[in-house]
Amino acid sequence: xxxxxxxxxxxxxxxxxxxxxxxxxxxxxxxxxxxxxxxxxxxxxxxxxxxxxxxxxxxxxxxxxxxxxxxxxxxxxxxxxxxxxxxxxxxxxxxxxxxxxxxxxxxxxxxxxxxxxxxxxxxxxxxxxxxxxxxxxxxxxxxxxxxxxxxxxxxxxxxxxxxxxxxxxxxxxxxxxxxxxxxxxxxxxxxxxxxxxxxxxxxxxxxxxxxxxxxxxxxxxxxxxxxxxxxxxxxxxxxxxxxxxxxxxxxxxxxxxxxxxxxxxxxxxxxxxxxxxxxxxxxxxxxxxxxxxxxxxxxxxxxxxxxxxxxxxxxxxxxxxxxxxxxxxxxxxxxxxxxxxxxxxxxxxxxxxxxxxxxxxxxxxxxxxxxxxxxxxxxxxxxxxxxxxxxxxxxxxxxxxxxxxxx
Length: 407
Known about the structure:
Blueprint: E1 2-4, H1 18-32, H2 40-47, H3 50-71, E2 79-82, E3 85-88, H4 89-96, H5 100-105, H6 109-126, E4 136-145, E5 148-156, H7 157-166, H8 177-193, H9 196-209, H10 214-227, H11 233-239, H12 246-263, H13 268-280, H14 284-297, H15 301-317, H16 321-334, H17 339-351, H18 355-366, H19 370-376, H20 390-401
Antiparallel strand pairs: 1-2, 2-3, 4-5
């Protein structure tokens, strides 16, 4: 397929071969795409077939390897032949869109991240708007809404292509800050969007590349925690897509949170979630220890709300009614219209035969309109909310691939 020609003066054919036309079209889309926008480049890439995209990416990666090999060859030659097509090394560098620094090192990290970002944008922005099942592989997945099966979802092959591109980053993908942010941003987006079919394929790749990254560990834990939730578990069991059960997923979630905290003990969001998962697993004592620390360290109203609410539950289970009441009351103070801490306070009072207090708390709940309850209680969005949201992380990624950005 590839040969080196010492005396050959590379002359491109008058009519470019199909592989070069296909590669050039893909590179044009990569270069013209504006990160974060549903532009024409993203739409056209979304309409491309999986075979064409994989072939273009394969050719690009092969040519990067060839360029790097020729750089290190003694008595370097001025041209190569790829798929019976002669290419001068200078033209090859231009085709691969390498910077001076990358050309000297034989790497294409900037372009690889840019291309992976294009395919992420196609998956997030373009595929949901395209006709039929454009962008979706033959493999189907169950589409769930409010715990009910409502149709067939999309396993998007653009994620596979993007991961393959980032796997070629040198010297190691896991040491590249752009790769790290790309995975953190895209996994956060998938979990927030409730796209667990694609997250199920996406997260293990991130874990292999970034085994010690606490954010990836945390997100892996979130995947298992939400999979164990009433939002997903009943349908997953009914459809036969998951036979492990909630307990197994909760145990995995607790372990991933523990690993994240081992790397970063100040990762309060992971500590709050670990506390909740341990409560679900009936490990009340360990949960209480995590949450006692979390309520002291938690920054931001919503994260503090979760910590206070869950610690109240842990204290209640430990038989510490006064402490439980204090933490439920703090949660209610943070979100005065939230019904969850009020209901917890009412139940606690009822269990202690404090009927007037129980009635007072229930009256506070019953006097709220449905809109107030839905809008004001963070508990309803617990399984979707992230302290660092997807938009923030994606904005960081887009800055890294913007023209002129330092790498």
